[in-house]
Write a structure and sequence with these properties.
Layout lengths: L1 E2 L18 E3 L9 E5 L1 H6 L11 H6 L3 E2 L5 E3 L2 E4 L2 E5 L5 E9 L2 E8 L14 E2 H17 L5 E13 L3 E11 L5 H8 L4 H15 L1 H4 L4 H23 L1 E2 L21 E2 L23 H20 L1 H27 L8 H15 L3 H8 L10 H4 L5 H18 L4 H9 L9 H12 L4 H10 L30
Parallel strand pairs: 1-4
Antiparallel strand pairs: 2-5, 3-11, 6-7, 8-9, 9-12, 10-12, 11-12, 13-14
């Protein structure tokens, strides 16, 4: 079935690339689709705010129909998975169904879970309600946190059964991004000795997203430099909020520096540098403390694809900038989290001593920072803050050093500092147990908890008493939650 929406300004861009970059596909209809969630704020931003009321729009979002004038396509890419070359991968359960011109620029609309593609590798191409809710909520939560990410426009459900570890029901998420281009797109053609395709893709990427690179003496080298910077800054932002991606394979790394592919992710509850959110990651390759290094490892894989164009020495120089960019940005984020106006080299020691105290007690990462904002520059340490640490005497010593540093920094007062800190230290993040609670309700047909949690996550830095339950310490049963790649 084809639908025409006259006010939908189609602007094919990725679809205009030659066929070797993608395959035409046909989505598989879902029975009895229903709209579970509609992101009104994003729809307004994209000028799609009236679309939800259009006849046939839910069918389009479910993959039951396609747009007149735009082919449904799935892109091909390859990648390293858990450090091992996996060969050809591609969009196995996602398909690009529209590219539209918006006030913010061209945006791709992608359906995840709309059926098989040539890259499904014998899988069904479906997504389940559980994983779809997690992606819908987290992509928008990350956007609200100010972290670059793909977005989620809609969530459609269906009673169709889908087999995973157990029988679940199907769902489709409408994902939105300027592009879903991945490191793996470049790897695919490089490892097939199709360097002309690598150049063509690099030229397209520069023209569409990095036009400033075209004006340089070496556009491909400038592109690598730009991706190095965006990746370093992205992972620094992850570290600051305690976010773990869970499956940082090269096919899940965005050329635009976006958080891409929400699967077995997790926000840390108790601080643990070795935190592994994906129980399939039995070696801890993608632990919290490893994420910065893995980002660099993945960039090495990308740089390999450009070596014939830029040379090894130039590539090494570009990659060597990664650590400095990461540390500069992470240091600036720590400065803001600590309420400092200036960052000094010795502040790494202050931050490191704090991390050691938090690690020893597995102190709740999110709640600690909000409570630290309550610390007065003088006087007694609030009990609700001090009691979060096991070694209270050591924490007292740290607080004395921190207060001295605040004095040297010239902080203007407790109230202003608290305001600054609360503007960068979220009160609400998508903890796994919160996602689990709304998933259980949705599986019983109750979507109100999902909408309520989404509303809280849309304003993560606000102090909204009606959402206080989302800012509480996780319950004991949360420790038994397990998230895998199927999530």
């Amino acid at each position: 079935m084809k639908h025409t929406f006259p006010d939908l300004p189609l602007a094919p861009r990725f679809a205009a690339l030659p066929d070797r970059f993608h395959s035409r596909v046909q989505s598989t209809p879902l029975p009895q689709p229903s709209l579970i969630a509609w992101n009104e704020a994003l729809a307004t931003e994209l000028r799609l705010d009236s679309a939800a009321g259009k006849l046939g729009w839910v069918d389009f979002l479910a993959g039951n129909s396609s747009l007149t004038g735009y082919p449904q396509i799935a892109s091909v890419y390859s990648g390293h998975q858990f450090g091992v070359w996996a060969g050809q991968l591609g969009d196995g359960r996602a398909m690009l169904v529209a590219e539209i011109d918006t006030p913010a620029g061209i945006r791709e609309l992608q359906l995840k879970g709309a059926g098989q593609t040539p890259y499904s590798r014998r899988a069904d191409g479906r997504a389940v309600l559980r994983s779809s809710i997690r992606e819908y909520l987290c992509s928008e939560a990350m956007h609200a946190l100010g972290i670059p990410t793909t977005r989620a426009l809609a969530l459609v459900g269906s009673p169709q059964p889908v087999w995973r570890e157990t029988v679940e029901t199907a769902a489709v998420v409408t994902r939105v991004a300027p592009s879903f281009l991945r490191f793996g797109h470049f790897e695919h053609f490089h490892h097939r000795d199709q360097q002309d395709a690598v150049r063509e893709l690099a030229d397209w990427t520069i023209a569409q997203f990095y036009p400033e690179c075209a004006a340089t003496a070496q556009p491909y080298l400038a592109l690598l430099h730009a991706v190095v910077e965006r990746t370093a800054r992205l992972i620094a932002a992850w570290q600051a909020v305690g976010f773990c991606h869970g499956v940082m394979n090269t096919d899940n790394m965005s050329l635009l520096g976006l958080t891409l592919d929400y699967g077995p992710f997790g926000f840390m509850d108790g601080f643990d540098a070795g935190y592994v959110c994906n129980h399939s990651d039995d070696r801890g390759r993608y632990s919290y403390e490893q994420q910065p290094q893995i980002g660099l490892w993945n960039l090495h894989c990308l740089a390999q694809t450009l070596l014939p164009e830029i040379g090894r020495d130039a590539a090494v120089e570009a990659l060597q900038r990664y650590q400095t960019i990461f540390e500069d940005h992470f240091g600036d984020l720590l400065r803001q989290k600590l309420g400092l106006r200036q960052w000094r080299e010795e502040d790494w020691g202050l931050a490191g001593d704090l991390m050691a105290l938090l690690q020893a007690a597995h102190t709740d990462w999110t709640i600690f920072w909000r409570r630290l904002a309550m610390l007065p520059a003088q006087g007694a340490i609030p009990a609700e803050l001090r009691d979060m640490l096991l070694d209270r005497d050591a924490f007292d010593t740290w607080v004395a050093a921190y207060r001295a540093r605040l004095g040297e920094d010239g902080s203007l007062g407790d109230t202003e500092r608290a305001t600054r800190m609360n503007a960068v230290n979220p009160k609400y993040v998508l903890r796994n147990h919160l996602a689990e609670e709304v998933i259980r309700a949705a599986q019983q047909g109750d979507h109100d908890p999902l909408h309520r949690l989404a509303a809280a996550l849309a304003h993560p830095y606000d102090d909204t008493p009606e959402y206080d339950e989302f800012a509480a310490l996780p319950p004991d049963w949360a420790r038994t939650l397990s998230v895998s790649c199927s999530s």
